[in-house]
Amino acid sequence: MRLHVVTGKGGTGKTTVAAALALALAADGRSVLLVETEGRQGIAQLFDTPPLPYEERRVAVTRGGGEVKALAIDAEEALLDYLDMFYNLRRAGRALRKMGAIDFATAIAPGLRDVLLTGKIKEAVTRRHDGRPVYDAVVVDAPPTGRITRFLGVTAEMSQLARSGPIKTQSDGVMAVLRSPQTAVHLVTLLEDMPVQETADAISELTKADLPVGSVIVNMATEPVLPADGLALAARGRLTGEDLAPALAAAHLHGGPELAGALAAEVTEHAQRWAGQDALRDEVEALSRPVVELPLMTGPMDLGSLFELAARLEEHLQTEVAA
Amino acid sequence: MTAAPQPEPTQRPARAPRQPRPGPVAPPMDLDALIADPETRIVVCCGAGGVGKTTTSAALALAAAEAGRTVVVLTIDPARRLAQSLGLVELDNEPRRVDIPGGAATGATGQLHAMMLDMKRTFDDIVAAHSTPERAQQILENPFYQALSSSFAGTQEYMAMEKLGQLRASEQWDLIVVDTPPSRSALDFLDAPNRMSRFLDGTMIRLLMAPSRAGFKFASAGFLLFSRIVSKILGGQLLRDISAFVAALDTMFGGFRERATATYELLRRPGTWFVVVATPEPDALREASYFVDRLSAEGMPLAGLVLNRTHPPATTALSATRADGAAEEVLEAGGPGAELAAAALRVHAERMQLAAREQHLADRFTSAHPEVAVRTVPAAAGDVHDLDGLRSMGEELTGPDGDTPTGTPRSRVLPARRR
């Protein structure tokens, strides 16, 4: 697997997961490119580096001399690149930008922006140096689930719209890479109704569009704090302050029935939330895709926590390869 | 590491011990008065994706209807179950009356209508309204128009704005609550109409039309180059489709810009209020910050920030540290139920830590925007997907301040630090 596309509903943490996946794939001396497509500079924030230019920059080093480079793709720059590469028109392109023509061109053709982005991704995946691929893997922090099929399928749409010309040729090449077995589209979800629903919808859309679906990554999963019997009792709403008061009193904890009641209320909410999440695990299983759970990290996300998540993903990737 | 040679310690005057600084306190937000006020005609809920804009819009609309107003809520992309509970089973791009059970019993005279935006249909309607039937047919069948109306980035925002203008012009409702499209950036909603009208009305598209009007003689050299590049990249066919579309659209020019400007102005008129929605997370609050700055730059009225899905503890009598300590003591004392009680104390400790983190983020927002009113809405145990859920969220949004179980004002997650 060379190209990993990471999508998910907004707020599920797909940028974090994409970054952790890039670290996991870069272990043992491999070289990975992490691509940002939405211009939010989320990757720079995660790795605590200055905003990324339109240039491949190293953001992390992994064990065994591996490295993760990051690239924030900018549609305008990609278009200038494209003009330069195919028509030797970079200077003309710059003049056009002054006229607002580039803005216009990326706006006029629906999806031209997405074509430029996916085109750049394809270029990175297939780039070779001295006969071997420059990157062992490319990880894309892609648009959210609601737009993912259109984003990846846009070149197909585009080749219908532009029935001739180099865009058509370019589109066909991009689609060939995206639909090949070396690509996987991973879906990040939370154990919440909406994200799970959107994941299910996205899987059926992607499948219909002939795009290869990879794993479902359950992010921010929590473990119950309570013992199983207490958890079940509280989830049914049967736990009261009276169940807790004697043990609290035995430890000479002041606060009386009021404290016990408040604790029971918090425990009930905790248990009910957990029960709700656990029920959604069944729905995630029913999607019949490989599933990996990443734990909820407390505190701000830093490189250390990213490596922790990466270790979980590495384990998952290994079992997937073995299976 | 070796220690650098230390300079001789010099005598400094003793400093007074640091006084605990009071946390910033945001002004409370009175949404109850806002939605009940007959002067309030439009409420726009905006914020980053996934923060609960749709639910907030629907909850506010329901609360306003129950306060006696005739309300329509324009939703963009509601969750399936929420849509069903609002009776939005089909996308017909027209408001439908929502049956509020128990509405009659409370003697409420208000009405709730709800609709889901169909952007393609809204666009088609504009085309039909602004051209002759034959022209409209030409436009609707143009492949470039079809792509533009269903997938142009910003079409959804533009059409939401357009629909808002239509609803307002119909004078059928005395309050319109608008949910904004789930875009990457909350600002897209404000920028899209202008981008769209600039695009449809702009120099470039006029130049593209020039060949069909007056031949190439007026076209500049720059344009010829541009045209050459466009046909190189996109192929001649697309360029012809665009030209045909633009020619057919000729009659509508000016109309687009006028409409977009009119709706944009509507948002600045008295009677319009913006409610910014965020969750207590860094990204969502950063987005909310941008939006607040933008609204103030544009002179658009901000009602305040709804901080959605907070986790206030049921008691603040026991700090996280003390709760963790107490959990150990309870286990040591043993006896029946000790394990459960210790777990309950650990649940509380986690809850206190989470609430402290959320309060910290809210405080940072308030430090940067001290004038912005804040209302917190605790996370319900599950997702809101029925009228009862909307009603209880509405109560959280509009209920009186300061009556939470812990006595904490609703502008905060935790009680304010004392001076």
Automatic annotation (TrEMBL), chain A:
Q: Which domain of life is it from?
A: Bacteria
* Positions of the ArsA/GET3 Anion-transporting ATPase-like domain: 1-161
Which molecular-function annotations from GO does this UniProt entry contain? ATP binding; ATP hydrolysis activity
Q: Which InterPro entries match?
A: ArsA/GET3_ATPase-like, ATPase_ArsA/GET3, P-loop_NTPase
A Pfam family this protein belongs to? ArsA_ATPase
Q: Which UniProt keywords apply?
A: ATP-binding, Nucleotide-binding
**What protein name is recorded for this chain?**
Arsenite efflux ATP-binding protein ArsA
UniProtKB/TrEMBL annotation, chain B:
Q: Which Pfam families match?
A: ArsA_ATPase
Q: Where is the composition biased (Pro residues)?
A: 1-10
Give start-end positions of Low complexity composition bias.
399-409
Which residues does the annotated region (Disordered) include? 1-30, 390-419
One GO MF term on file is:
ATP hydrolysis activity
Q: Which InterPro entries match?
A: ArsA/GET3_ATPase-like (IPR025723), ATPase_ArsA/GET3 (IPR016300), P-loop_NTPase (IPR027417)
Report the residue ranges that make up the ArsA/GET3 Anion-transporting ATPase-like domain in this protein.
40-312
Name by which UniProt lists this protein? Anion-transporting ATPase, ArsA/GET3 family
